[in-house]
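Provenance and format

Records in this collection were gathered into a single text stream. Each protein contributes a sequence line and a token line. The two records reproduced below are adjacent in the stream.
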Amino acid sequence: KTMKYNLIALACALLLAFGLSLTVTAGPAQDADTDGVPDSSDDCVVVPNATQADSDLDGYGNACDADYDQTGVVGTTDFSTFKQAWNTSAPTYNEQVDHDCTGVVGTTDFSTFKQLWNQAPGPSGLACAGTAPCPATAHGCP
């Protein structure tokens, strides 16, 4: 065993002497919601949203953000905004309320709104989340 360890130490010393280094790489990036976007770049870490649509550019994706008035919690004024957008469609609707980006504010959007009621938006993996415009956000609904 001693000879084996001596050979390993010698190999490391030679690598260092010639300016070479060993690089250890981490495994695949964490993706909690399995949407193909690493958590550190994901605007909705626990809700799958491969498009990363963020219509109000606040760093929280449409899929996990019903805080339309930017107060930090989903409440009654957000409900009023949702009510006004109900059953409307692109291009004349409020895209921010289209949580699933289907082009129509409908029942799945209402289901998302209900789940987010009285909660903060997110969570987001973006460092700029909560500030608009968040430079890391890409766009609204495709």
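Adjacent record:
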Amino acid sequence: MGLPGSGKTTLSKLLSKKLGSDIFNADQIRKKLNDWDFSDEGRIRQAKRMRDYCDNEIKKNKKKFIIADFIC
């Protein structure tokens, strides 16, 4: 997590290769769901959504690591 332009996605991609893990990028998830609400409510919804995506991927594919790439 970090501020915009701080290298989160770049680091996520490199780390993903090392760990053999999947990545969930918040911008891609927001685009997929067309949810660009950055109010307090929208950010909380997005954080929970990111958690749910990661939890579901771990359970579904028995992954040890999942990378959640988003601003916090």
